[in-house]
Amino acid sequence: MILRDQFHRFVPAAGAPQMNSVPSEVRGAAKEFLHPGQMCVSSTPCTVTTIVGSCVALCIWDPIGRIGGVTHYILAQGDGVGQASCRYGDVAVETLITKMVGLGSSPRMMQAHVFGGACMFESFRNSEHPLGMMNVKIALEVLGKYGVKILTQQVGGAKGRKIVFQTSEGTFTVKEI
Asked: What is the pTM of this model?
């Protein structure tokens, strides 16, 4: 069962993991493409694809609980006006962790992979606070607050990235684009 709304993609049930860095095609896996402000959490096989530039894609895997999740956010924090949204990193990262805990995971078992935060436009590369790196910083801060181990950081640079994450295995591929 997949529940969808404007900000989240959420898939409940049970899967089969092992941590490595080369994803295999999982037969029968659901396929999801995440747009900015969306999320997918699953304990069943799901292939999640997203593309980021200055945005951040955060993939979290729990090898014991066999739960994987991905969020894709645009900005580090909202201005506090209006409804909280997973378009903002502070909300998105906490929501991803909370959804995984709701499926039985524990933050101390989670392993994180952080992608994106590029500075796509040359005119912004000399900025004192580049947007992309502010997005990365908020992910690292929230993950640290919860004690989630960070295994991968492929961040910064001047190119976008396409990420494909297998929730049933905790594996991923990243391609610069």
From this structure: 0.84
Amino acid symbol at 17 = P
- pLDDT value, residue 121: 77
Burial class for 125, CB neighbours closer than 10 Å (0-12, 13-18, 19+): exposed
Distance from C-alpha of 165 to C-alpha of 46, rounded to nearest angstrom: 8
Kindly list the averaged pLDDT for each block of 10 residues, start to end, along the chain of length 177: 33 35 64 97 96 97 96 92 91 97 96 95 73 96 98 96 96 96
Q: What is the DSSP letter of 168?
A: T
Q: Which two structure tokens, joined as six digits, stand for 146?
A: 């919860």
Would you report the helix, strand and coil content of the chain in percent, each value rounded to 5? 20, 35, 45
Domain ranges (residues) in the chain:
3-176
**Containing H/E element for 161?**
strand 161-166
Q: Which two tokens stand for residue 112?
A: 């994180």
Mutual angle of helices 89-102 and 131-146, in 10-degree steps: 30
Question: Distance (Å, rounded) from C-alpha 147 to C-alpha 169?
Answer: 22
> Residue 105: its pLDDT value, please?
96
CATH code: domain 3-176 is 3.30.1330.200
Q: How far is CA 8 from CA 57, 72, 92, 160, in A?
A: 14, 10, 9, 22
Q: Which residue is listed with tokens 């502010």? A: 134
